From TrEMBL:
It comes from Solanum commersonii (Commerson's wild potato). PROSITE patterns: PROKAR_LIPOPROTEIN. Residues 69-297 form the Glycoside hydrolase family 19 catalytic domain. Defense against chitin-containing fungal pathogens. This is Glycoside hydrolase family 19 catalytic domain-containing protein. GO terms for molecular function: chitinase activity.
């Protein structure tokens, strides 16, 4: 009898030690209490390292409150499969660390829980479709292969545009081929993003394929900033901060997912009717909405969800400066 008691006690001790180790693993994602202040009548908060600037957005849920590591695994379940090209590169921690820079500015923290989750699904919709190695009959379906690349595999050129030699000169030997979660191409884009993130990407574009946190940071920066002054960012168009002008309405540009594609890709994807390039991005978005438990029925009507009939903000004939 006594022996048995002792064994049970021992077992309990072992279980609690395992519990402790498990807890330590998650220590870096544990949040300290929120700091709350009222500034000029607006409630402002700081939420530990994840939302670490006094901001109204930090009073809401933060991304780790509604997206955990298991869900991230579910969304990008095949990214480390044998056919993938960036095995071991992308992970939950790098996404959360990158997002921490932008949560005080509203990334994944705007609106209520549903809008917040929809924004992350939308952002991932772009990321997943741009980094997928899925194809029609792939195991698990073609949409399960997001984050399977972190760079262009066989670049046909170095993407050095001499027009920008004064602002963003190419570094001899550096190659500005596609890299990242929303792939960056060209010296002027590496230059502009490097400037914004205070990273020397003109000399070291390879950082983006070596460091997943930087790769996600660059992608979230692109999502949070307009291509051109006076235009909305994908974030503003998606969460409804942006109010369309009469010209926008005539051009069929409405707040929502469709317009985020217009901003990021213009006539490469939008205003072309019902094309695969557009449908693939939309399919990824709806797939992530389902997996996150929001449900694709929350994606909204056709004219909000796609950009088949939209006129591009920046037609290719007149390219945006740093786009
Ligand atoms: C954190 O905790 C969850 C469950 O509570 C677990 O699945 C996960 O592996 C832990 N570790 C990290 C690093 O997230
Ligand atoms: C915080 O969430 C609430 C709903 O939960 C929402 O009404 C409010 O607009 C959000 N705050 C910000 C700054 O987006
Ligand atoms: C990756 O980039 C982040 C953000 O710039 C930085 O904090 C981190 O130290 C980098 N990791 C490595 C291994 O260089
Ligand atoms: C209206 O949109 C068209 C193309 O969609 C553009 O060429 C024009 O400059 C816009 N006008 C204004 C006032 O923004």
């Amino acid at each position: 009898m006594e022996m048995r008691m002792r064994m049970i006690l021992c077992l309990l001790v072992i279980i609690s030690i395992i519990g402790c180790v498990h807890g330590d693993e998650n220590e870096s994602f544990r949040k300290r209490p929120t700091i709350v202040k009222t500034v000029k009548g607006t409630k402002m908060c700081v939420k530990d390292w994840e939302c670490n600037k006094l901001s109204k957005f930090c009073c809401n849920l933060t991304i780790t409150d509604y997206l955990d590591t298991d869900q991230f695994e579910l969304l990008f379940t095949k990214r480390n499969s044998p056919v993938a090209h960036a095995v071991g590169f992308w992970d939950y921690g790098s996404f959360i660390r990158a997002a921490a820079l932008y949560q005080p500015l509203g990334f994944g923290t705007t609106g209520g829980k549903k809008m917040q989750m929809k924004e992350i699904a939308a952002f991932f919709g772009h990321v997943g479709s741009k980094t997928s190695c899925g194809y029609g009959v792939a195991t698990g379906g073609p949409l399960a292969y997001g984050l399977c690349y972190n760079k262009e595999m066989s670049p046909s050129q170095d993407y050095c545009d001499d027009y920008f030699k004064l602002t963003y000169p190419c570094t001899p030997g550096a190659r500005y081929y596609g890299r990242g979660a929303l792939p960056i191409y060209w010296n002027y884009n590496y230059g502009a993003i490097g400037e914004a993130l205070k990273l020397n990407l003109l000399d070291h574009p390879e950082y983006i394929e070596q460091n997943a946190t930087m790769a996600f940071q660059a992608a979230i920066w692109r999502w949070m900033n307009p291509m051109k002054k006076g235009q909305p960012s994908a974030h503003d168009a998606f969460v409804g901060n942006w109010k369309p002008t009469k010209n926008d309405t005539l051009s069929k540009r409405l707040p929502g997912f469709g317009t985020t594609m217009n901003i990021l890709y213009g006539d490469g994807v939008c205003g072309q009717g019902d094309v695969d390039a557009m449908n693939n991005i939309v399919s990824h978005y709806m797939y992530y909405l389902d997996l996150m438990g929001v449900g694709r029925e929350e994606a909204g009507p056709h004219e909000v969800l796609n950009c088949a009939e939209q006129k591009p903000f920046n037609p290719t004939a007149a390219p945006a400066a740093a786009s």
